[in-house]
Amino acid sequence: MLALLAGSWRWLNTAWGDALRYWLGWAGFGIICLTNLYLLRKRLPVLKNIGRVAGWLDFHILCGLVGPSLIVFHSDFKVGGLVAISFWSMMISAGSGVVGRYFYTQLLQQRGSLKKDLKRYDEGFQKLNTMAPKIYTADSLAYAKHSAVRLAFGGHDLKDVPQNPLIVLAYSILGDVHFYTKPIAVPPGTSRAVHRKFKEYGIMQRKLLLLDTYKRLMGYWHTFHVPFAIFMYVVAIIHIVAELLFRVK
């Protein structure tokens, strides 16, 4: 395997490898440019009814990951001078895009929609109390819901939400990790399906109570993300023009 990798690396440093890197650069930049289709979909009335916004966002993120990956190989893992500004702006923009996707998922549902879903879940839990009152007592249901909300917020009480949005973000991400790795205090004999419903209830409660915080975080993220994307495009175009006109690497 090591011999194969060493041979591939030597081949990339031949004339054929230079040609491949050249076309990887064009392909990577072209795919990155495709990320702007999502912005056009949001802003142009003629595109408003074409596909779901969530689907366009997924395409935006996919191109934002594939394009930079090709550019990394195009650069031969070596950047310097003016083009380094474009490269690192691209990397920061791509990395922050993943964070932005997380913020977006927290804001997918509006306050009214979340309240309706939570009411529906409460009605479902009440049915459990009706069907099996000895297992699902009012106290055990209340404790299970409280446990689910604490789990969704990384083991902390939502009534003690800190003012610092970065700490809120850390607790929220920790809660998402706990969602898949830790159980909650449900009555004995609770099925996996019902256990999961309690967890989903906790996540929705967290989203509802942190909706305004995530709107602030989304605003901060947008202010951070956009300038790096602009720097990337400006310097990349200068690099391309210099390469085409003056054969400057």
Structural overview:
The chain is mainly α. Helices cover 77% and strands 0% of the residues. The chain has ten helices and no strands. The protein has helices at 2-12, 15-34, 36-43, 53-74, 83-106, 111-131, 138-152, 165-181, 192-209, 211-246. Helix 2 (15-34) packs antiparallel against helix 4. The mean pLDDT is 83.
Order of helices and strands: HHHHHHHHHH
Distance between the ends: 32 Å
**Count of discrete alpha- or pi-helical segments spanning 4 or more residues:** 10
Share of helix, binned: over 70%
Tell me how many strands there are: 0
Biggest pleated sheet: none
Give the overall silhouette. Answer: elongated
- Range of strand content: under 5%
Low-confidence runs of at least 5 consecutive residues: none
Structural class: mainly alpha
Give the overall pLDDT as a whole number: 83
How big is the Rg? Answer: 24 Å
